[in-house]
Amino acid sequence: MKEPLKPLQQLVIDAAAEKQACDVVTLDLRGRSDLTDFFIICSGNSRSQVQAIADSIQEKIYGTGHKLSAMEGYSTANWVILDLGDIFVHVFHQDARTHYDLERLWGDVPIVEAVEP
Predict the structure, then answer these.
(1) Quick one: the chain helix, strand, coil %, rounded to 5?
(2) What is the pLDDT of residues 27-69, one digit of tens each?
(3) How far is CA 60 from the centre of its chain?
(4) R_g of the chain, CA atoms, integer Å
């Protein structure tokens, strides 16, 4: 399902794209999850790229006054989760993304936007 991205979603996607994040996908979880409305999923090819993507997102968020509720997984950089309330951002190392396959697990939810940076 294609619909306009909300400003915070676009900000996250743009920040990830600045660090050459791969396969950026936004899943619409509204009505399916009590925790959040959207997952933004992307990946990097190395530990340092995954951390750079997470850093870029965090910097852009703070620059606009939005708050990051929590960030997990940064030190290992296999799967970094940034909790933005209505949006959970999943930054995977490519191998971990293939292993956990969130897109398949949530395969029945609409894709709001798929962006190739």
Answers:
(1) 35, 30, 35
(2) 999 999 999 999 999 999 999 999 999 999 999 999 888 889 9
(3) 13
(4) 13
Amino acid at 10: Q
| Fold that domain 7-115 belongs to in CATH | Beta Polymerase; domain 2 (3.30.460)
Q: Residue 86, CB half-sphere, CA atoms under 13 Å: how many?
A: 8
Distance CA 31, CA 37 (A): 8
Query: Per-domain residue ranges for the chain?
Result: 7-115
Q: Which of 46, 103, 100, 16 is nearest to 111 (CA)?
A: 103
Give the residue carrying structure tokens 């970094």. Answer: 80
